[in-house]
């Protein structure tokens, strides 16, 4: 008999890329949640012809902020379970936000004779998405540092890495 | 029914994205990290959403939603793209950050247009 793998069921759940079944299940569950949330928001706030897809824009801004914040929090707290990080990061937030809908809507707005709206939508998505990620990155750093992990926070400059 | 299909296809997209990420991370590389996996899934998903336009007339609107909102939406990611860009900028790798923005946008737009052209949209 083989030795049981992580997860303790005794069967070979380990896959080629090395993740355990728990991680794949977590990503699948997170992917379902993120996709359905995005889909429901799209039904609640449907795209209007000739207008910017506001729901997708909002989704991508919020998702960028949250993922960047969690990324820096998790850098400060590496002990967070990997399956949990996988469920929330690549799972929920990766599926909640979408890139394909942004370029497709830009393409469609341009083709329907509204290249200005398309370009504005693309520009806003990129600029506001990056701004949200930058704000989230800083927020997560402050939150991660304030919980006493690492000395790079505003009050923890004893290691000489501060500005 | 449509919501169920979208969810199942979204799971497939998310798992594919996660698999690509793990697969590319498995290659030993002397170069510093650059988000190749996100570029790959974003370009592939943009191609799929273009292709999905032709699906409506053949299989019906619920399968279009499954492919576009479900699979392409689950496969591609905006938050990883913006977060990775900010991370590169925080490491003062400004050229890599700018290349990440431009490569995703230009190749993504081209892939969506190519998918659309093939599907006859």
UniProtKB/TrEMBL annotation, chain A:
<keyword id="KW-0915">Sodium</keyword>
<keyword id="KW-0812">Transmembrane</keyword>
<keyword id="KW-0472">Membrane</keyword>
<feature type="transmembrane region" description="Helical">
    <location>
        <begin position="53"/>
        <end position="75"/>
    </location>
</feature>
<dbReference type="Pfam" id="PF02537">
    <property type="entry name" value="CRCB"/>
</dbReference>
<feature type="transmembrane region" description="Helical">
    <location>
        <begin position="21"/>
        <end position="41"/>
    </location>
</feature>
<dbReference type="GO" id="GO:0046872">
    <property type="term" value="F:metal ion binding"/>
</dbReference>
<feature type="transmembrane region" description="Helical">
    <location>
        <begin position="82"/>
        <end position="104"/>
    </location>
</feature>
<keyword id="KW-0406">Ion transport</keyword>
<dbReference type="GO" id="GO:0062054">
    <property type="term" value="F:fluoride channel activity"/>
</dbReference>
<dbReference type="InterPro" id="IPR003691">
    <property type="entry name" value="FluC"/>
</dbReference>
<keyword id="KW-0479">Metal-binding</keyword>
<keyword id="KW-1133">Transmembrane helix</keyword>
<comment type="function">
    <text>Fluoride-specific ion channel. Important for reducing fluoride concentration in the cell, thus reducing its toxicity.</text>
</comment>
<feature type="binding site">
    <location>
        <position position="94"/>
    </location>
    <ligand>
        <name>Na(+)</name>
    </ligand>
</feature>
<keyword id="KW-0407">Ion channel</keyword>
<keyword id="KW-1003">Cell membrane</keyword>
<feature type="transmembrane region" description="Helical">
    <location>
        <begin position="116"/>
        <end position="137"/>
    </location>
</feature>
<dbReference type="GO" id="GO:0140114">
    <property type="term" value="P:cellular detoxification of fluoride"/>
</dbReference>
<feature type="binding site">
    <location>
        <position position="97"/>
    </location>
    <ligand>
        <name>Na(+)</name>
    </ligand>
</feature>
<dbReference type="GO" id="GO:0005886">
    <property type="term" value="C:plasma membrane"/>
</dbReference>
<keyword id="KW-0813">Transport</keyword>
From TrEMBL, chain B:
<comment type="function">
    <text>Fluoride-specific ion channel. Important for reducing fluoride concentration in the cell, thus reducing its toxicity.</text>
</comment>
<keyword id="KW-0479">Metal-binding</keyword>
<dbReference type="GO" id="GO:0005886">
    <property type="term" value="C:plasma membrane"/>
</dbReference>
<keyword id="KW-0813">Transport</keyword>
<keyword id="KW-1003">Cell membrane</keyword>
<dbReference type="InterPro" id="IPR003691">
    <property type="entry name" value="FluC"/>
</dbReference>
<comment type="similarity">
    <text>Belongs to the fluoride channel Fluc/FEX (TC 1.A.43) family.</text>
</comment>
<feature type="binding site">
    <location>
        <position position="73"/>
    </location>
    <ligand>
        <name>Na(+)</name>
    </ligand>
</feature>
<dbReference type="Pfam" id="PF02537">
    <property type="entry name" value="CRCB"/>
</dbReference>
<dbReference type="GO" id="GO:0062054">
    <property type="term" value="F:fluoride channel activity"/>
</dbReference>
<dbReference type="GO" id="GO:0140114">
    <property type="term" value="P:cellular detoxification of fluoride"/>
</dbReference>
<feature type="transmembrane region" description="Helical">
    <location>
        <begin position="94"/>
        <end position="118"/>
    </location>
</feature>
<feature type="transmembrane region" description="Helical">
    <location>
        <begin position="35"/>
        <end position="56"/>
    </location>
</feature>
<feature type="transmembrane region" description="Helical">
    <location>
        <begin position="63"/>
        <end position="82"/>
    </location>
</feature>
<keyword id="KW-0406">Ion transport</keyword>
<feature type="binding site">
    <location>
        <position position="76"/>
    </location>
    <ligand>
        <name>Na(+)</name>
    </ligand>
</feature>
<keyword id="KW-1133">Transmembrane helix</keyword>
<keyword id="KW-0812">Transmembrane</keyword>
<protein>
    <recommendedName>
        <fullName>Fluoride-specific ion channel FluC</fullName>
    </recommendedName>
</protein>
<dbReference type="GO" id="GO:0046872">
    <property type="term" value="F:metal ion binding"/>
</dbReference>
<keyword id="KW-0407">Ion channel</keyword>
<keyword id="KW-0915">Sodium</keyword>
